[in-house]
Structures are given as structure tokens and as C-alpha cells.
Design goal:
This protein is an alpha/beta fold and 199 residues long. It has one domain: LmbE-like (Rossmann fold, 3-Layer(aba) Sandwich). A 7-stranded mixed β-sheet has the order 3-2-1-4-5-7-6, sandwiched between helices. Helix 1 packs antiparallel against helix 5 and helix 3 packs across helix 4. The longest helix is centred in the middle third of the chain and has 14 residues. The protein is globular, with a radius of gyration of 15 Å.
Length: 199
């Protein structure tokens, strides 16, 4: 079994679903595709190095594509490139950004993933700090035992430490709230299930 997580920038997957990937990595192969190197947020080589360090925490296969940060396209080229990767990986589950987001790259990454992975059995949207309030989760993963890896993965992104959204206390608070929504103690990650195909 394989799982694919798609992000627009090097820290998107870490924010959105890293705890869940850590949980799933015990039984599955994890693949992460980042569509840009996030060069507007710091030197390209450093940002790639940061996400490589995070991927190592899960022994995940990381691919960083070379689309422009801040101007991520929605066109047949990027859709076909991502589709080629998806067919090769053959994941049972795909995680990607929620399409309603204040960042244009996040919106576009979601759209191209939907088109590229239309044949994948299960597609879920994850939340990040710029996700809009229309996000209504309907799938929850208990990541209490893996949250330290999520925090460590985000701490790897030293180029982003001065950014207000990289607030680990706030992230932990959100995870506690998601657990509360389910009626549990602990730390949860939440997702919106876009599609599930039963064969």
C-alpha cells in the first residue's frame, strides 16, 4: 500500500497531515510531492534541504518539482506531470490542500491534484493556517503518539521560524480542538473527504 501527500510549498504537508503520515508509515510507503521549492520564503537550496530532513523522519520518498512559488499554474502540463507520478506510485490514499484557501498556490495545488488523481480510491483535503473557515472536517485521525514528529518536522523549517503562522502552540491547540470535536482527549488531525471509491 502507498500513500501520497501533495503540497504547494515545502512545509504544507508538515502542517496539514504529517502526524497522520507518521501513523500510516508504520504500515504503508509514504510519498510526498511538493510542487514548488518555496523560494519566496527563503533560499531555494535551504528550503529543499528542510523538507528533505522532514521526509527522513518518515523514511518517505520526497519529490520537489520546479514550479514557481507564488505563481503555481493550473494547466495540462502540471496536471499530466503529477498524474504520471500518481500512476507510478499507485497510492490508495491521497492528501492535498483544501481548495478554499487565501493563498493562490494552495488553491491551485488542490485543483491540479483533484484532476491528476481522479482515479485514486480516496482523496482527502487537509488544513493549513491559511485554510478558509468553510473547511468542515469529516475524517479524523488520532495522532497523539505521533504529534512530536509533526512538531519536529516543522522545527526543521528554520527559514520559516520568524513567520507568525509557524506557531507550534497554536498548532497543538488546533489538534486538541479537533480531538474535542470527536469527544476524545489527545491530539487529532482533521480532513475533509472529497471522494472515496469502493470497489
Amino acid at each position: 500500500m502507498a500513500v501520497l501527500a501533495v503540497g504547494a510549498h515545502p512545509d504544507d504537508v508538515e502542517f496539514g497531515c504529517f502526524g497522520t503520515l507518521a501513523r500510516l508509515s508504520k504500515k504503508t510507503n509514504i510519498h510526498i510531492i511538493t510542487l514548488s521549492a518555496g523560494e519566496l520564503g527563503g533560499p531555494k537550496t535551504l528550503r529543499i534541504r528542510e523538507c528533505k530532513e522532514s521526509a527522513k523522519l518518515l523514511n518517505a520518498k520526497l519529490t520537489v518539482l520546479n514550479y514557481p512559488d507564488g505563481d503555481l499554474p493550473v494547466n495540462s502540463k502540471i496536471i499530466e506531470e503529477l498524474r504520471t507520478f500518481a500512476r507510478k506510485i499507485a497510492p490508495q490514499i491521497v492528501f492535498t490542500l483544501y481548495p478554499h484557501d487565501t493563498h493562490q498556490d494552495h488553491r491551485n495545488a488542490s485543483l491540479v491534484t483533484i484532476s491528476s488523481c481522479k482515479d485514486i480510491n480516496e482523496l482527502l483535503f487537509y488544513e493549513v493556517p491559511s485554510t478558509e473557515n468553510s473547511f468542515h472536517p469529516n475524517v479524523f485521525y488520532d495522532v497523539t503518539d505521533y504529534f512530536h514528529l509533526k512538531e519536529k518536522s516543522l522545527s526543521n523549517h528554520v527559514t520559516q521560524r520568524t513567520k507568525p503562522y509557524l506557531n507550534l502552540d497554536a498548532l497543538r491547540g488546533l489538534a486538541k480542538f479537533r480531538a474535542y470535536q470527536c469527544g476524545f482527549d489527545g491530539l487529532f488531525e482533521a480532513f475533509h473527504l472529497y471522494r472515496e471509491l469502493r470497489k
